Amino acid sequence: MPTNGGQNRLRVPEGVPGLLRDLIHERTGIYFEDGRTDVLLEKLEPCAQKFGCQSFLEYYYVLKDNKAGEWDQAWESLSVQETYFWRENAQINAFVKVVVPAWFEKHAIPFRVWSAACATGEEPYSLAIALVEAGLGSNPIEIVASDASPNALEKARAAIYREKSFRTLPLALREKYFTPVSGGWKLCSEITNRVEFRRVNLFEFAEIAPLARSHVVFCRNVFIYFSPHAVRQTVAMLALRMPPGGHLFVGAAESLLRMTTDFELREIAGALAYVRI
Asked: Is the pLDDT of residue 141 over 70?
């Protein structure tokens, strides 16, 4: 496959930024406003250069036809992997202190949790640590975490983290569950064995349908990158499979109040969650 080494800037034919923007939106839900298409081009240009394209129009057809599996590379450029342990901890507290105990008061069957768009794994591992700390580790709880980025999932499975991942994690928990290794801190197998990772595109119904049957879905700080249409579509797909009473946690900066009538916003132990009605 030819490459130009990234030395020359790609040509930008008129109308092509919009074509690329719409293609990305159609397949991922991620949306770049008209004033931000330059950001999209900046993210994709190294991929296009590596592929040997001379213009963004060439790269548009490369992506459209998924030549040589180029979507994988595009995903890596577009994905946002900003996350850390104990993020928005009020929701984690509500999860372990209210939602999970309430389930096992009435059921003995496994409780299913899905951490969607988990990036490098800090969120699902935080849930697993919190469950163990709350004395719920012996209960049948299945945690599945997903992301569209293969590189992010590889890092999540390796479970080695650097300082910025620990910005809000209590030091006592870091010392209890992590061991210093070359390149960072390694999470212990007691926690990593509790989480299963899968590659999933949140905009593909066939991929999310099995996971959307979970009793709790964490899909936090994802919809801020989606268009309103993409948010409605994704939430509707979740609603089709989530059981009545299932809990959907989104980020503090995200609201579904005008996006769906399938979920009811409730306060749980000081945190907000959308409950499937």
From this structure: yes
